[in-house]
Fold TTF1 factor.
Amino acid sequence: MDLDTAKQELEEFIPHVRSISDSSVRKMAGRDLVRFKQFKKQGIAVKFGRFSQKENNQIQKNVEEFLSITGIDSAEKLLFTSRYPEDKETINRLKSEHLFCEKLSEGIPRPWRLIYYRARKMFDPNNYKGRYTTEEKEKLKKYHALHGNDWKKISEMMSRSNLSVAMKYSEIKSAINYGPWSKEETQKLMHAVEEVIRKRIEMEDANSLLSSEKSHRDLLIDREKLYQKLPWTEIEAKVGTRYWRQCKQKWTTILTNKMTKGQQLYRGTKGLQAKINLIKRLYEMKVEDANEVNWEELSNTIGDVPRAYVQAKFYKLKVSCVPFWQKKTFSEIIDYLFEEKLPELEEKL
């Protein structure tokens, strides 16, 4: 299949495909297109965002079955083959013979690359190793000075996952300000967000608008583009004095203030009513996993707010009200809030 045809066919499932590199598009055409079409026949849409518990379980099952078929003795050897140079040739041959790509992605309606990254995160014994010590942070700075952004190499030297060292370096590379945001920082953040959104929209419109038309039109943005899937590490670099998570939280606050015209929607009796509505709506949805919740739809339980605001309020609610919430399933958390917390909030109201 030629590149233009591949982009055209993939666009139905991945609307932003034209902003993806040509080499990645070619891989997706080979690994994903047939699967996406099969899922479409079953009425299943391609998914992005956080993986659900059900999807994690499916990845676990797929990996275990592949290990059983091939005799490879650990998930680490399967997913981090380069760590085992003496077995590398044999493992790669077994992966090829037994169709590793197809087996790993079985039953999961997502791009293969995302499934692979998720599997590596789940099965990396170097992941989830707790806080970095001062000594580790200094080592990380030193290794980055020597090897740049070669996170694979640095992760091996530090016995931490690629993702962990990359994110930690992003956090410590410059003097991060943890105090209140200054006016200058807020302006930088707003300009940075505008810049990345403008760039994204211009790329999406490149095929449908003449450049002369584009340069003279006002930028009209779907509201979702203001807070969904923004490149926070890129925005962090533009702001310069804040960690990416701080940028994301501050942007949510700015948007919420603009959308609500500065009203306090989560204080006093309004706040109590918002919590009551949120618990009731979540209970009525009867979903088993947080990733099945349509947070966009839920936002009107509080008011005209971004979905990240609602998610943050729900997180605070479960942490402050549900004992041992980490050990409970999503549906158990909702049941507890409905049965134990709701009557208390209604009485208070």
Q: What stands out?
A: Residues 268-348 form one domain.
